[in-house]
Amino acid sequence: MLLVGWSALYRVDASEEGVVLRFGRNVATVPSGLHVKMPWPIDTVYKVPVQRIQSLEFGFETSQAGRQTRYASQTFDDLAVAEMLTGDLNLGHVEWVVQYRVKDPTDFLFKVGSTEGIDRRSLPSGTTSDVNVAVPDTIRDVSESVMRKLVGDSSIDYVLTIGREQLAKEAEELIQKELDGFEAGVDIITVKLQTTSPPTETVQDAFQEVNRARQKKEQVVNEALGERNSKIPAARGEKDKVIAEAEGYQNRVLLETTGKVRAFLAQLAEYEKAPDVTRKRLYLEAMEEILSQAGSKIIIDESVRGVLPLLNLDQGTPLPGVESGGGR
Amino acid sequence: MKTRIAAAVLMILVIAAIVLYMSAYVVEEGKQVIVTQFGKPVDDVQEAGLHFIAPFIQKAYYLEKRLLPWDGSPESMQTKDKKRIDIDVWARWRISVPMTFFVKVRNEERGQKILDDLVDSAVRDVVARHNLIDVVRKSNNELIYETEELERTAADRVVGRGRDDVEDEILHGVDLSEYGMELVKVRIKRVNYVASVRATVYERMISERLRIARLYDSEALEEKNRILGQTQKELDQIEGEMEQKATEIRGEADAQVIQLTAQAYGQSPEFYEFLRRLELLKTTLDRNTRLILSTDSDLFRMLKEPGQTTSAPVLPPLRILEQPGQPTSAPVFPPLTRP
To answer: What is the pTM of this model?
Structure first.
């Protein structure tokens, strides 16, 4: 009795749904909680983790997830999964992740199978659940063929850089469509591209070389533009400065000349009233100024000769161009 | 007596239970059952639930009703354009006519074996009819590149829907109806050059990229020289304009000066010359100048002969000596010409 009672009670975890089979026939799907069923062998219950999001990794393997996730070194098989032909017949290395969730536990259990049947297997969290391993295998196969089909219709550039998001989006749609065709009962939550790279280190280096050259080009062009930007405005400033100076010069000489001309005309007007006297006066005034300014004066008479040689001695230097006599 | 009856009843119940147990069987969802009678299949059961057979005479064999996987192993083969490729396909199939399947194949493992033979050969046939590009691509959509330089003008064209067609042809090239099986889907999982060719593909990718890198390098120089040349051109233009404008302005100023002075001084060139000479004397002679004056000069002559007047005093003949610096030649008064 106890045994029968025990087999009549069962618990469905928070993340699970229970699929109840009566003599193998699906009669109910129950949510999480404590439930009663008909005792064995009438009812059996499969617990399917419908809430749990599961991940499949392609081309790499997480060996230990944690704060700092460790990745297992890539095996030959990982490389075979990741290496694919692009539409331009180049080779690319693409790693990606597919996350899915069971959306219909009945379909999940009874539509896609394998010859191994339904496994009871240990899940990472330590709970035991009934999981149809055929479904993840199917998702795996579908994902690989879909990703290759998309990459096969893209350029290597598209796969490596510009098209990553688009590829992931299209892959998600196509994988979902194919799995719905199989009634696999799963919902593809997301497809994320991880590393996408050229196939080998040396090819990678060549790609890097292109990036380097592109950046170098930008740098060289920017430097040239910088030089231009530093020179052109300076030249324009110089131009404005020189022109302004010329204009200043014009202004100044015109003012000066006007002054001089007016002064001259004024003087002339006065001069013409008494030319002789004015002329003499001006001459004498000038002489006065000159003679008072001059450092030394030697006054010689025509009759006195021989002074000049003495002067020469006095100077200690020859006086070129000095001729005897001072007659005009 | 009572115990005997009880024992007999119990016996009958146990036998009934055993018979019941032997005749009842459960068909679970996703399964189907073939019932045989003396080894000959007589019935197939699709419905899930509790079913019965005649014990000892009949037997129930379970078969999968679900979609079943098939995964081929990678095969090396040649395309129509003589490219060696490794190709790996998967398929999904199901048991469609369980009676036929049970008779001809018996179980799922042997079903897989049949697929191994049939699908592989179909793949070979179809791949041999197609170029590599048809196996790789599924459309003739323009390939998108990051840089224009990479856009290849003469990429191989795909026939029809390419890979989709190849997969369909493989699917239709496998006839499983005589086995009571149905091939639901065939997909190319992996396709790649054979290992020996891959190395040359890597080389090609490298040389292609390096070619582009070199192109960028030379484009950088081109662009730089273009910018610097343009800059120099603009600088020359600016400086030329500067010279032109400044010279024009200064020339105009000088012309105006000439015009103004000519107008004014032209009224009395003699007076102007006289004033200028006096001015010149004043500026030429300074405190470092030694003057040697003859008593014959005008200055003194005026003293000697106070009564005599000259209409135009003549400038003194002067010997001007720089002192104490370098000896200089006697200055010569610049000729003053009338404007």
So the answer is: 0.71
